[in-house]
Design goal:
Blueprint (H helix, E strand, L loop, with lengths): L8 E2 L14 H9 L6 E7 L2 E6 L3 E2 L3 H13 L3 H18 L4 H6 L2 H11 L6 H4 L3 H8 L2 H9 L1 H5 L2 H5 L2 H20 L3 H13 L7 H14 L3 H13 L2 H19 L1
Antiparallel strand pairs: 1-4, 2-3
């Protein structure tokens, strides 16, 4: 198991955290033992339904040491550790490639300067770049990593030119993204219902289907109604025939039962 945090990650707010990641029991025990480390904390909505409460971690201390404390657990299948490694590396990449001078100044340049210092130990550690930690965390079951996996194809399959050379890789990515989100829905993730509603609405990583999109929005509306779900339902309903809306309602019932009861 991982060692306790040594003050390398400062929580933005003290709160108890329940891990939604069921990739391994050890990860659940880990998050109970040291709650502020968990990036995935949740808001319960009734039944088994939940929303993720996602906060940007604020890092202190050496990035290389932070990662070394998590590598063994990540390699042993702990999704939370893999996702924390992904986020730590991503923070370093942002600091080390902080864009043009004006953008750099617009950031709190003192903080960026400190983060560049924290990240020096990662320069030259090519073995860390050989692993796609986001992809690994998603495969290991992190609900939050799976959401990012579906929203950020570039992080998984590289740029479009590279991806087009390997159509099988695109097909696998699309299949995995949808499978992961459906699995998260069955664990209670309402954020994943919203992601699937959007995916079927836009038709980028799955077939465009107003009928399916409406079904997911109807399920979302039951679990966590808000103005976005209401507006999406109104817009999509106008595009569909009554028999299609009926099918959307039936699908939505199945989605809601899978997620939220």
């Amino acid at each position: 198991p991982m060692s306790e945090s040594k003050g390398d990650e400062v929580p933005l707010s003290e709160k108890s955290t329940s891990s939604t990641d069921i990739a391994s029991e050890s990860s659940i025990h880990q998050s109970l033992r040291s709650p502020h480390q968990s990036i995935e904390s949740t808001v319960a909505l009734g039944g088994k339904a939940f929303l993720l409460k996602i906060e940007t971690p604020h890092y202190e201390g050496d990035a290389s040491e932070y990662i070394d404390r998590r590598i063994a657990a990540a390699r042993a299948g702990d999704a939370q550790s893999s996702y924390e490694i992904h986020n730590r590396i991503a923070s370093c990449k942002r600091a080390l490639n902080s864009g043009d001078a004006d953008e750099y100044k617009a950031y709190a340049s003192v903080e960026i300067g400190q983060e560049i210092g924290h990240c020096q130990g990662l320069i030259g550690r090519t073995e860390l770049g050989d692993e796609n930690w986001l992809s690994l965390a998603a495969a290991q079951g992190s609900v939050e990593a799976r959401l990012i996996f579906a929203k950020d194809p570039k992080a998984i399959i590289g740029n479009l030119t590279e991806a087009l050379k390997d159509p099988e890789r695109i097909a696998n990515y699309r299949r995995d993204a949808i499978d992961y989100l459906n699995e998260s829905v069955s664990q209670g993730s309402v954020d994943s219902i919203e992601a699937l509603a959007d995916i079927h609405d836009r038709g980028i990583i799955a077939d465009k289907s107003p009928e399916k999109s409406l079904a997911y929005w109807l399920a979302y509306q039951r679990a966590h109604p808000n103005s976005q779900s209401a507006a999406s339902i109104a817009r999509l309903s106008k595009l569909l025939q009554p028999n299609q809306i009926e099918r959307s309602n039936e699908m939505s019932e199945a989605i809601y039962r899978s997620c939220c009861l």
